[in-house]
Fold each of these.
Amino acid sequence: MKVLNLPRLALASAALMAASAALADGDRAPRITPIPVYTQECGACHVAYPPGLLPAASWQRLMGNLPRHFGTDASLDTTTTASLSAWLSAHAGTRRQASAEPPQDRISLAPWFVREHREVSAADWKRPAIKSAANCAACHTQAAQGDFSERQIRIPR
């Protein structure tokens, strides 16, 4: 008769539960505390999007095209641009959900984003309080803190 080693069994069970929880979490990237210059410069116009939402190549193209940043001149001095580019690349998405470069380097066109928001109708995106899929903070009440969990969603009417 084989005797079970309960401490090992408990440890293996805990590891399996942790792995399952990570997979159930949708392969989400860990939250990264933004550097102050990122919050100050990028967060002045929109949510300072977590760098893990895009791959490094997308961030590099976005930072290299700041004079034409989605129809706006978001130019920065070369030192700030270099610093932000390095930080964004270092923390860019490498997980399954964010490793593919989305069309036009738009987070809102990434396959994972479209899948997560499939219940949102075109009319909802056009509500005056929302305006577009890029306005995360309209529905994600903790977006500025990098929390996009479903528990924190309040869709404005």
Amino acid sequence: MMIKKLTRQGNSAALIIDRALMDLLDIDQDTELKLTVNGRQLLVEPLGEKERSARVATISKRLITKNAELYRRLAK
């Protein structure tokens, strides 16, 4: 068990994850993390491959829909 305090980050609070813990979880600064609240527990876990793929697909569809006309003009 590890005891940590939140630190001030602008108008928010941040939880610092030590390098040893990051190595143990096999994550780095660029890893997307999923936060889940379970009662008074905060669960932090890296996104799985399926979740990352689904997220990329959702974002891609949104961009294609938003920029459809632009893509049509560029294709000409």
Amino acid sequence: MAARTPSQTIGPFFHLGLRWPGAGRVAFSEKGTGVVLTGRITDGAGEAVGDALFETWQRCATGETPACASGSSNPSGFGRVETQPDGTFRIETTMPGGKSPSIDVSIFARGLLKPLRTRVYFSPEAARADPQLASIAGSPRLATLVAKPASGNEYRWDVRLQGEGETVFFAF
């Protein structure tokens, strides 16, 4: 049996092998209401995390698992973008359907042994309706999972990796 070795951190260069053109536009074969999710990832000191990878998966507008989008090189319902030097990200997608409309998020960043997993909801009511959040339903931390309407079809959701105002992360 081989000797066990410690996990390596994800490192600062992982995104070089994981990027693909157009991954910031989530493809669906079904039509729905277009939305743009923007935000900023910060560390425990409030500093921008400008070399993270922000990955999303979601259900389509009907609430079903998406079928493959014809003519797209991206897996349907899946998005991936790198954060900009100021920590910002932008994903163009369709408003997810279902009882608790949400987008699953994985964040890869230097210094992490594994990606952080969380979820963003488009209203406080959607977050409160999710049975997985029952244990924090009355907590102010629930607000860290809710995107706020910005302008037009745009929503803003900032992610804090640790410290005061830390985003709720899941152990999937």
